[in-house]
Design goal:
The structure is a homodimer. By secondary structure, chain A is of the alpha/beta class. Chain A has 21 helices and 16 strands. In chain A, the strands form three sheets. In chain A, strands 7-8-9-10-11-12-13-14 form an eight-stranded parallel β-barrel. Chain A is globular. Chains A and B meet through helix 1, helix 3 and helix 20 of A and helix 1, helix 3 and helix 20 of B. Chains A, B: Belongs to the glycosyl hydrolase 67 family.
């Protein structure tokens, strides 16, 4: 868009009456409200008099336009985009330099004599640099001595959308899918571009647009046209499109009798299909695959293994430089086995057997995105296989859209964990970023929390989780606090004291949630749709889909014994890790019940018995939501009124539900522990029967 | 909200940079953009210098605020709301007058010496008058001799939302449900108020918030709190809340062993439940019930009839002045019977047996919201039973959100149809508005097309259908054209020539759709989700859920014989109606195949054989979408650019799919008719097999 056009459009906006008067959150962290401090604006204005774009690259054009849009808002002035500075100083120059000491998407920002240069080795680097520069302005950083170099540590930084053909999202709590399949490819929702903008601004460069429980539809020409229309929008933001594939597609849409990965006809079908895809989408990213997992078909149906399946697809994609992302999230319906061990047991023997363009994508923990899990033992093995990380941004087990959980600490906890696979300091992050095992391919994925709700994420503060995922995918050494503070300043307020308060509240939110939801290493106490507490749930089509399978409460104690005395899942970790967790007396409390069945009367390091400690956590967790509410109330004056009310309303729901969780747990566990609620806590005002009745309401058809 | 606050908020809006620069359709027909013509603004300004509100009624307060908001936008000035004119002329006075010759919700608008008076018998009348006045301004009417009286012809003017607890909408094509059940009652989405504003502006005074395939959840205290929170928002807009109920709720949530409507315990349970509801919602409207229909349980499960079921609920609601709306949409799974006759057969014998606070709600046609149906024969009988109308606004059988179908002509066609029940002139409208049989209760419902999409209805022009339903519910004598023109001027453009073009395109859109979809009285040629053409569909769990059940094509001809030679459904109509439709030679072509199995070679009144006529309709229908596109292209300069592009994209999809429909029908029917495509039309470029493959894609899991 030309600068003139943008200016006219902005003018139109400014003159349009009747626009809703609230900040609806649509703009995310790309708000670009006018900087209030005139001195600051003047300082920035000195180095932003023009934008020099000497390139026909669509991505660099995007970079220039984003700068122009941002500066229009932040400084209230229209900065022209020009092909040459013509000797003038005081502008922003975009440039690529193939010889720069950067990796392929890194950037350098510098300011010399009031002239800012954004250098990338590639066009994408320039785009990321442009957003980084805007971030400097948005967070009111000094720029006169700007000198900043940044390289993404992981190559493929992706969102995974679990979105279905009918517009539903398998674990979505912010409306419907962003993708309007019935309208595509003819109608292009302007929101597709805004989605790409938001992602590019935090360095995300890939998106899997459909659910891992995939429909074959997406591999038909009819749907490839639709996907291509999205790819056409995303391309100039440096974002590639990937598809989840249904493994038996050769049968369901190819008319073949088998989907056996070693069958030549099947191989040919996939090769042809991939060729067809690349005709529609020349820069197609590749496939994400959920196979032989939770009812999805896969290579094992034909007596083959995961590597056989992945390698067949990899062979088809290789000529086009496409990749296969094969998920390690597998477990069998075996009530006697320990689900914790399943993925490791299936994948570890396959190390070194995957083709070069395959990444095995591993969930952060061994079970399934619980509020707290130990890191997956797979990260401590398989050095010959590129392992990608799968985090969940959407709050499937984190209270949907009404509980506040800032997730950067969850991501960091896993990334910073030491696997000891190559000695001390072998963190999960170093595995995933490839530095430990020199992976040729690296990847990190977040299961998206985006939906068609106006503010994208339902809970306004859940935007921070999308943001934090992107920032950590780029640079996992950033701290949770730094990211939170940056996001708050860009999104909510630049007032220092309120920004600090909100940052603090974000940082503490996850531990508060764990305390009332699953303290001390409890997990999976959920109803069917993962909404309400149901630790008593003991019937299901699969034993590992009950709650009692996980907590194993009995009259003596609670917890899943995973030492040699039990399932011995602990043996899947390196000895140094085992040593940390093996002894219940020294096992860190957050992981205690993950690995040990502990007596109710056992004294813990806190000085309390297990029962008392559990009660203390449930009660203080629930009480802490009151603290969150108070903190939020204190920032009212510095936050947009609609956003304020929105969050305040959700915190109220959270408070109510936190008490519900607390009551459900303590009343249920009391039937085993047969002990009173310890002072100073008061026993719940309702009975277990009443709690269960409330839960049952949410399960009524 | 005080005038000062509104003014400040508007100022804030005007100064907020970075707001998306497109008109996203959120404001619907309440746009209130500045009137361009300064002379016109000055003329209006003379009579809008203040708003005199001498009442503490929340509804009148709403009226005053809506006037203020509207005038702020339209005239660009803040009009103060004052308690007394203090002798000044030139203002707008809101007043109620119990003695006015109006019905309870009617209004009068008058202008004397530049002082406008809005008179209602009730507060609601004043609110409707305020919106009517704004409509005068929005459509640029002269107001100096304003003298307008209007009374709603039907008492209960309602939307029915087929919205589920999980946020899905059974037949929704514009995103998720507007109701955020997991957030309620604590978080109040500002959109709830905007929903109420839009409805009140067109006279809608009731809303059933949940699906007729109802969950018992809504009758629990937990959910009643949530529903009450919505009712609290809607109340000051004169809108009452109703609930769809699950008939066996006494069993599922009441713990009883039966839901038999004649069981005393069941009666008591409902009485108690209703008392509880009115504690939460003092002005609760009543229940909507789908019973013994499409698998829903009902009174027949206990050997009782519909009246028994309805009357039991009516008894519980009567003390609170609540009503029961009992749906007549029933049919059994009997392949040998004619579904057309089912509802009449079940309900006609019950005439006079329903309690006084029961309305039987009848779909406009005998089958199910097809693009064209004859009026339901039930409207021509049951004079002792108040019959309400159920229209479908959401485009379940009208191409979802990508086909343009302006529905006022569908509604009008039914309302204007003559049942002859009390002699000539006994139109369906006179049945429904109660004037024919002196009903004590009258009601009309539209199955909502609203969803969480930013523009509410997906297709921007589908907003006109919501609007038209409301306007016709208020006054069914309005013409489709007048409503379309009014809506266009309020929503898209006041430029006369373009407004006329768009009005014309709206008016023709339904006939165009019928031509390529179901011409000459064809019906129900749909795939499972009612998206793609599948006239060949012949397998289903029920015979009346196949396509071939409806069209009955064979080697000789096509159509469902419903004269005495066939099912004799025609006998359900009055003799005068039978006479119109009984003879295939004189039966109007739009209804021909509804009542007659006609030979392919039969010459029709058009001079063409049936086969040639069908082909002509399919082809001209599909071609006419090109005409729609051209017409739309011609208004580009007068329509907001984003809205323009949005509609243009959808028309492109419609064009593609219209050809798909055409090809599906002609290629499939050709297998029976064994005749060539008549000149000048060219045979489809694809084979029936290819068409079927395309359809199959949309049915892939």
């Amino acid at each position: 868009m030309s600068s003139k056009l943008i200016f006219l459009l902005l003018l139109t906006t400014l003159c349009k009456a009747g626009t809703p008067d609230r900040d609806d959150g649509y703009r995310l962290w790309l708000k670009y409200d006018l900087i209030k401090d005139a001195t600051k604006r003047a300082a920035y204005a000195r180095s932003t008099q023009l934008i020099v774009l000497n390139s026909t690259s669509p991505i660099q054009k995007t970079a220039a336009e984003e700068l122009q849009t941002g500066l229009q808002g932040l400084l209230g002035k229209t900065v022209p985009i020009v092909a040459s500075a013509g000797g003038k100083t005081g502008g922003i120059t975009l440039t690529t330099n193939a010889a720069a000491s950067l990796n392929s998407e890194g950037y350098q920002l510098s300011n010399q004599q009031n002239t800012i240069t954004i250098t990338g080795k590639t066009d994408a680097g320039v785009l990321y640099g442009a957003f980084a520069l805007l971030r400097q302005f948005q967070t009111l950083q000094p720029i006169d001595r700007l000198s900043l170099t940044s390289n993404p540590k992981i190559q493929h930084r992706m969102l995974n959308h679990w979105d279905n053909t009918d517009g539903s999202i398998e674990r979505g709590y912010a409306g419907q899918s962003l993708w309007k399949w019935y309208e595509l490819p003819e109608r292009i929702d302007p929101r597709y571009r805004d989605y790409a903008r938001a992602n590019a601004s935090i360095g995300i460069n890939g998106t899997v647009v459909n659910n891992v429980n995939a429909s074959s539809r997406f591999l038909t020409a009819e749907y490839l046209q639709k996907v291509a229309a999205l790819a056409n929008v995303f391309r100039s933001y440096g974002i590639k499109v990937y598809l989840s594939v249904y493994f038996p597609a050769p049968k369901t849409i190819g008319g073949l009798k088998t989907a056996d990965p070693l069958d030549p006809e099947v191989n040919k079908w996939w090769a042809d299909k991939v060729n067809e895809i690349y005709k529609f989408i020349p820069d197609f990213g590749g496939f994400l695959v959920k196979a032989n997992s939770e009812g999805q078909p896969g290579p094992q149906d034909y007596g083959r293994n995961h590597a056989d399946g992945a390698n067949m697809l990899a062979k088809a994609l290789a000529p086009h430089k496409g990749i296969v992302i094969w998920r390690a999230f597998v477990y069998k319906a075996d009530g006697k086995a320990d689900r914790f061990k399943a993925a490791y047991d299936e994948f570890n023997p396959l190390d070194g057997q995957f083709a070069k363009n395959v990444i095995v994508q591993v969930k952060n923990g061994p079970i399934d995105f619980q509020p707290r899990e130990p890191f997956s033992p797979i990260f401590g093995t398989m050095p010959k296989t590129p392992l990608g990380m799968e985090f969940q941004i959407t709050q499937e087990y984190l209270g949907f859209a009404t509980h506040l959980v800032y997730e950067a600490p969850i991501f960091k906890e896993c990334l910073d964990a030491d696997t000891y696979v190559s000695g001390k300091g072998s963190t999960v992050a170093k595995v995933v970023d490839g530095s430990l095992h020199q992976y040729p391919l690296t990847a990190i994925a977040g299961v998206a929390n985006t939906g068609s709700d106006r503010n994208w994420t339902g809970h306004p503060l859940a935007q921070a989780n999308w943001y934090a995922f992107g920032r950590l995918a780029w640079d996992h050494t950033l701290s949770s606090e730094a990211i939170a503070n940056e996001w708050v300043k860009m999104t909510l307020t630049t007032e220092l004291s309120s920004a600090k308060t909100i940052t603090d509240l974000l940082l503490k939110s996850r531990e508060i949630y764990v305390n009332y939801n699953t303290p001390l290493g409890l997990s999976r106490p959920w109803t069917g749709v993962h909404f309400a507490p149901e630790p008593w749930q003991n019937r299901s089509s699969r034993p590992d889909w009950t709650a009692v399978y996980y907590h194993r409460a009995d009259s003596l104690g609670i917890g899943f014994e995973r030492t040699a005395k039990g399932s011995n899942a602990l043996a899947q970790y390196r000895p140094e890790v085992q040593q940390q967790w093996n002894n219940p007396a020294t096992c860190p409390l957050p992981y205690l019940l993950w690995f040990h069945h502990v007596l109710w009367t056992q004294k813990l390091s806190t000085g309390r018995t297990l029962w008392d400690e559990l009660c203390t956590r449930f009660y203080t967790g629930a009480d802490s939501v009151g603290w969150l509410q108070k903190q939020w109330a204190s920032v009212r004056k510095d936050v947009d009124s609609e956003t304020f009310a929105n969050v305040a309303g959700r915190l109220e729901t959270q408070q109510k539900e936190a008490i519900w969780w607390r009551d459900a747990w303590v009343l249920y566990l009391q039937e085993f522990a047969r002990q009173p609620i310890p002072a100073p806590f008061k026993k719940p005002e309702r009975s277990l029967k009443e709690v269960k009745e409330l839960v049952d309401i949410y399960q009524l058809r």
